[in-house]
């Protein structure tokens, strides 16, 4: 018969290692950016401008159907860019949209948003009523968040990190901001690897099960040690970047070059956004 303590420890271990693996994959992998697809073939400047226009459109529209249309376009672009739709949905819908749903959940009920009743029910003798304005507002909020997150994730998946940093400078973003983002990006992988190594070292020396007092001491020591090591490593990473000639300006061997395909894409993006805006104000 298996020990419940070992099961709990195995669950915690799998959760920690899975979270670290997801962090590395979500922020550091450029697998999809190196694939051959529609968005990967576009100039990063035109692609960023078009996605910014899509994002502004999604935030400005007040009709769920129109925002859903933009979300459908996002899924179509992901498919045409050789990104598995299932993988894309898992990455974009499991965190921020669900969290936003939890935030907006109280606004469904009449006690927060009065109006026409859509559904009423009793829970433990407490009567609750979901209203039409509350439901419509919550649905609009969640769909808008899901679409916005999907657009941002799709842009980051199909564009190399170095190219995105260069685009930020092209658009006049201050160098200190670009430098901060660049160092944070490079440091994430080092931090995730460090936490993974510390966890493995503790498990190999202490084992899975330990006394509560002993476990608290180990955790406290590792927190302090990780803080000291991260502070030292951040300085070392910065000095290493300076020694290799980094001045805050992201430099690429390949220069941006616009093609007729980029101009056609930008024109199409403008037409789509203008059409959605026009349809939104005429409804």
Structure description:
- The protein is mainly alpha-helical and 283 residues long.
- The chain has 10 helices and 2 strands.
- The chain folds into 2 domains: 1-30 and 172-252, no CATH class; 35-159 and 253-283, no CATH class.
- The protein is 71% helix and 5% strand.
- Strands 1-2 form a two-stranded antiparallel ribbon.
- A hairpin with a 2-residue loop joins strand 1 (117-123) and strand 2 (126-131).
- The chain is flat.
- The model has no long low-confidence stretch (mean pLDDT 78).
The gist of it:
The mean pLDDT is 78. It contains 10 helices and 2 strands; from the N terminus they run αααααββααααα.
Draw up the topology in text.
Layout: H1 4-28, H2 44-60, H3 64-80, H4 85-93, H5 96-104, E1 117-123, E2 126-131, H6 132-157, H7 161-170, H8 175-206, H9 212-243, H10 260-282
Antiparallel strand pairs: 1-2
Helix pairs in contact: 1-8, 2-6, 2-10, 3-6, 4-6, 5-6, 7-8, 8-9
